[in-house]
Inverse folding.
RNA sequence: CGGGACGUGGCGCAGCCUGGUAGCGCACCUGCCUUGGGCGCAGGGGGCCGCUGGUUCAAAUCCAGUCGUCCCGACCA
């Protein structure tokens, strides 16, 4: 585990955003490709499915050791170092302090929080030689809370915010997609402790803002969205999503206002059942109809010759507060996360067959809300529906002509359906529509409240001398995943395209020949000059054919490539190529430094503008 | 954990159905040649065919078990 300290080693320099040049301070770092451990792959490794995984393997950034466990090679490590540098700068600026907590954690701590039982098989448990039980830390709430409770006694010592950049281990059911979902992965995690909710909200806003700055400084296109808190607990959270076509998550945002949420959480302005079913007579009474073996909405709709929207689905869930039923229109999807939040339940799972039979008296597929003895919650869109079809709680039967208001006892109407693209924005007065896009979750901020501090007795004495639990927040960034997300967002058919702030090197010098001669001499002179000027420079001094070097250059994705060939050199010129735009231009040797500076400044100015926008935006959380 | 697939030189794969000599491309080594987009020619090295057991005169190939890996689902930074 000693190598973990390696994260502290930081060769990457701080990029100076304030300088007019947008360049870097001091001398740049340098490397000759012949000395660099850079095993590139021509072919796609069979194990890699997603593009970031393929490209990071092919470009020699990472190698797999076991399922979901990776080594970072020199180039990957350089990217990590730059990313970590940005994270540290922003975390420190936001008032957090860096620490390093143990990776191996004792069972007792996890029993105190109750998670030794609840965390499940994701928690990798091990025994030492004395048969004492430990786990590999999947997260560090327990350790940090233990640390704090030992030292913090007074409100005068709060607030405090501590963070670390460390490996975590989660024995994922199915690791996949390379760094996107590993079992061992690097995470930046921060924990804040405050005297009360109000102060905790201040800490939260500081982190929210810091996160925005971090991802903006990485040069990534991202969005902060409202999110569900899931099993970590708490009641308020945001996810930071890097936008990429290949993202696993759906990001919902408003076409007009700044509303944004993840799919399971996204709300819609209530739409009441505007579509009357037409033929059905409102006064018609309930009618039982035979629907042998017709279980799904599609089957029943087809069988009865109606539209799915004329049906109401009844879904049974088991929660820590007992079984409940949820009602949505046949053509709608339910969001379990919304229901769980609405109920204030800790757990909510789809009922198994046995519970469905117990609750409804019928096998799955025939559940209905009429006369159902458990609490029933319905989506807004169900309100006022009449003449609809619903399960009859009896095998092979459904009801027709159900009138919700008349026939069903609803415990509450609320928004529990999955948002749909084009639905009206939930913000009052906003006329926008919901738009969907794809994203990769790279950061998540939570307000935890006192869940852990209360359970583990991390309290302090307030001004009145009264013992109170500290109010916590926790804030994570998937560091390796952010790196992968950058590749997902920035690549083309030839390889990676690094954003300037994360790139392992800013400039690649590619002499067409390394035989003694003018080309080679010019390449070396330029190399020294660019390093002196402060750039991070890689020199491809390998004695290979130019084609090989060009292919590797594109694969690895250094943003600026300077090609030195005999013809242009006659004119005291070299070729400068922009990896992103593929623009190529001849520039004079004595212009190279200025041209590269301009190129870097160009990209940094965009980032600067994004930062300004973040700083000026109101954080109305 | 349920469903699917795959383990054959460093990488990508064929061979397996129909048992008998382990093969191709890339990479690697030597020499020549070439030098602006993964050149060309010649020579060469490297594989317990994931592992264990069974069937057989004989197993990469058939059978059983086991381990590993990947994909789809339920979970997550």
């Amino acid at each position: 585990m000693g190598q973990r300290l390696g994260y502290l080693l930081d060769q990457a320099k701080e990029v100076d955003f304030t300088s007019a040049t947008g360049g870097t301070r001091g001398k740049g770092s340098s490397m000759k490709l012949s000395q660099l451990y850079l095993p590139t792959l021509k072919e796609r490794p069979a194990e890699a499915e997603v593009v970031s995984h393929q490209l990071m393997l092919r470009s020699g950034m990472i190698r797999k050791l076991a399922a979901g466990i990776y080594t970072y090679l020199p180039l990957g490590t350089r990217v990590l170092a730059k990313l970590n540098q940005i994270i540290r700068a922003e975390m420190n600026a936001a008032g957090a302090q860096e620490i390093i907590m143990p990776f191996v954690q004792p069972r007792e701590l996890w029993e105190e929080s109750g998670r030794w039982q609840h965390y499940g098989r994701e928690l990798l448990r091990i025994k030492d030689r004395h048969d004492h039980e430990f786990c590999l830390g999947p997260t560090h709430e327990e350790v940090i809370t233990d640390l704090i409770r030992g030292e913090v006694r007074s409100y005068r010592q709060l607030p405090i915010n501590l963070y670390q950049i460390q490996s975590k281990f989660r024995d994922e059911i199915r690791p996949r997609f390379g760094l996107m979902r590993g079992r061992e992965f690097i995470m930046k995690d921060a924990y804040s402790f405050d005297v009360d909710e109000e102060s905790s909200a201040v800490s939260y806003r500081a982190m929210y803002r810091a996160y925005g700055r971090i991802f903006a400084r990485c040069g990534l296109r991202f969005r902060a969205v409202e999110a569900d808190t899931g099993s970590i607990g708490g009641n308020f959270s945001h996810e930071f999503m890097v936008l990429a076509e290949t993202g696993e998550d759906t990001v919902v945002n408003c076409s007009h206002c700044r509303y944004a949420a993840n799919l399971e959480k996204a709300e819609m302005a209530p739409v009441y059942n505007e579509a009357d079913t037409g033929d059905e007579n409102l006064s018609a009474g309930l009618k039982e109809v035979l629907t042998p073996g017709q279980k799904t909405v599609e089957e029943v709709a087809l069988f009865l010759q109606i539209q799915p929207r004329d049906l109401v689905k009844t879904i049974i869930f088991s929660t820590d507060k007992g079984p409940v039923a949820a009602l949505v229109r046949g053509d709608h999807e339910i969001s379990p996360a919304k229901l769980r939040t609405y109920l204030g339940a800790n757990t909510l799972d789809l009922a198994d067959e046995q519970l469905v039979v117990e609750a409804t008296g019928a096998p799955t597929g025939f559940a209905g809300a009429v006369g159902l003895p458990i609490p029933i919650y319905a989506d807004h869109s169900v309100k006022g529906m009449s003449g609809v079809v619903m399960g009859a709680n009896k095998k092979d039967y459904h009801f027709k002509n159900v009138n919700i208001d008349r026939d069903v006892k609803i415990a509450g109407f609320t928004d529990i359906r999955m948002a749909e693209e084009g639905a009206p924005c939930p913000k009052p007065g906003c006329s926008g529509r919901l738009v969907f896009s794809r994203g990769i979750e790279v950061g998540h901020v939570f307000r935890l409240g006192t869940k852990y501090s209360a359970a583990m007795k991390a309290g302090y004495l307030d001004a009145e001398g009264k013992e109170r639990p500290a109010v916590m927040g926790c804030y994570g960034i998937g560091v390796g995943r952010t790196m992968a997300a950058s590749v997902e967002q920035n690549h083309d058919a030839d390889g990676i395209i690094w954003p300037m702030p994360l790139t392992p090197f800013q400039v690649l010098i590619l002499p067409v020949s390394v035989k003694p001669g003018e080309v080679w001499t010019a390449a070396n002179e330029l190399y020294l000059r660019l390093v002196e000027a402060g750039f991070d420079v890689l020199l491809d001094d390998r004695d290979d054919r130019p084609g090989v070097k060009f292919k590797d250059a594109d694969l690895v994705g250094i943003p600026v490539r300077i090609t030195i060939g005999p013809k242009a050199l006659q004119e005291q010129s070299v070729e400068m190529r922009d990896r992103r735009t593929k623009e190529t231009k001849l520039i004079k040797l004595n212009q190279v430094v200025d041209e590269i500076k301009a190129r870097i400044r160009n990209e940094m100015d965009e980032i600067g503008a994004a930062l300004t926008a973040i700083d000026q935006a109101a954080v109305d959380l």
